[in-house]
Design a protein that fits this description.
alpha/beta, about 170 residues, single chain, binds shikimate-3-phosphate
Length: about 170
């Protein structure tokens, strides 16, 4: 399929960019976390607290497989941990163009400092946590992403234009 899938660390802008990109391209937008919340009837924090991370990851893979089955082209915003799970990587690669959005540590700390919806970041020093998780995930993100966009200092339209050019190019090749 030729979906456009946005991956990257929590707070890098996947959902905000994805929503706008979908509008500009006149495509449906899907936020995987929102889909999981809707399907399970629980908030992400409740899923983690009640059933644990492994259960959440299972729901995440199920959701991905569901989307992989769809024949309608979509813009998909993936949860930050999804591309890190090895079982999801070949599925993602088959689904379309995977765009890695990157934001600096300072930007992420600023965006996530008052957030209480990300159980992975709870407790301890936020900056240190983000930094170590970023390091841990970097290789997986870069391996799964077909292309990386550094978002710092760019506005939404600039990022969207970059993505559209990439998508046009990859569609030409196909
Ligand atoms: C997670 C990222 C979150 C959500 C969950 C776990 C992660 O999505 O899936 O809290 O492990 O990075 P966002 O990247 O959309 O915040």
């Amino acid at each position: 399929m030729n979906h456009i899938i946005l991956i990257g660390f929590m707070g890098c802008g996947k959902s905000s960019v994805g929503k706008r990109l979908a509008k500009v391209m006149n495509l449906p937008f899907v936020d995987m976390d929102a889909m999981i919340v809707e399907k399970s009837g629980m908030e992400i924090t409740t899923i983690f607290e009640t059933h644990g991370e492994a259960y959440f990851r299972k729901l995440e893979t199920e959701t991905l497989l569901e989307l992989a089955d769809s024949t309608e082209q979509m813009v998909i915003s993936a949860g930050g941990g999804m591309p890190v799970q090895s079982q999801n990587q070949p599925i993602l690669k088959e689904m379309g163009t995977v765009i890695l959005l990157e934001a600096s540590l300072d930007t992420l700390v600023e965006r996530l400092q008052y957030d209480n919806t990300r159980p992975i970041l709870k407790g301890g020093n936020l900056r240190e946590k983000i930094e170590s998780l970023q390091k841990e995930r970097k290789a997986a993100y870069e391996q799964v992403g077909d292309v990386k966009i550094v978002t710092d200092g760019k506005n939404f339209m600039g990022i969207i234009d970059e993505i559209r050019k990439i998508v046009e190019k990859t569609t030409d090749i196909i």
